[in-house]
Amino acid sequence: MNVGTIRDAICQKHTMIAEQEIELIAKMAKRMANSTIDSFYKINDKINSIPNNIEELSQIRDFMQSVPSEIEKLDVSIKQGMSVYQILEEFKYTFAEEDDYDK
Amino acid sequence: MVDVNINANFEPEYSTNANDVQASILKIFDDGLEALTSVVLLEQKLLPQLFKSNQKLHLKVPMRPKERPIVPDPADKRLLPDPNTWIYEAYQKLNSRLSETLAPLEQYLATLKKYSAEFKLDPQAIIKVFDDEENPPEADALKKDVLLHQKEAARLMKEIPDSIVVSMF
User: Fold this and answer.
1) What is the pLDDT of residues B75-121, one digit of tens each?
2) Which residues of chain A does B160 touch, with a Cβ-Cβ cutoff of 8 Å?
3) ipTM score over 0.85, yes or no
4) Is A15 touching B (CB cutoff 8 A)?
5) Domain assignment of residue A45, given as a range
6) Within a domain: residue A54?
7) What does the pLDDT look like over A63-92, one tens digit per residue?
8) pTM score of the predicted model
9) Which of A32, B95, B110, B125 is surrounded by the most beta carbons within 10 Å?
10) How many domains would you assign to chain A?
């Protein structure tokens, strides 16, 4: 009697769940990376913005002084994101080239 | 080869009903007797001059009685036992032996009931619960679950054989 059919069917269910969960982790990693990149872009945009008056210049200067602490906060996000990427590496997950660059 | 499948109620079942197998074997028995009735008498073929009529004569074949033939009183010498009794007994013996071979099939199916949780497992439903962007699960929790499912898949692959011989099947 052939029992392999049901064995393969139920094994496939577990494998499918595992694969889709890995995809969810990858999605999570991409989301975290994008969020961190966005934060850096926002800092960059603000620093590079051209002031129209002395008040705005002063605001930019104040902001520049807060950049190290902002980066410190983002460093925590980077570490969290990298720990998620580490999980994906353990599962030998490979990203598309563009997503790999984001990492 | 008989396959074991999962039915709509998430229970294991055989691709062929065991009772159908029994019925088809018994039908072969009856078909065999039926086929013998079409065998033309050899003597008529070889020695046609001994036969007045040209009408085809067929082999005299014992018929299977539907019910057990009544055994005549041995004291009454005028009554003879039914000559088809042996066919009836052979059929009944085959039938009971086939019934005996079907019992282990049900027993084997019962052993697969321990996998009922796996039969009912719905990957889409599980993923849907986790795939919540507003309230995403912890990556470590997902990792633990991935490892668990990978382990379960490996365990099942090792535990359930590709094929098995149960009774005469």
Assistant:
1) 888 888 889 999 999 999 999 999 998 889 989 999 999 999 999 99
2) 3-4, 6-7
3) no
4) yes
5) 25-102
6) yes
7) 999 999 999 999 999 999 999 999 999 999
8) 0.74
9) A32
10) 1
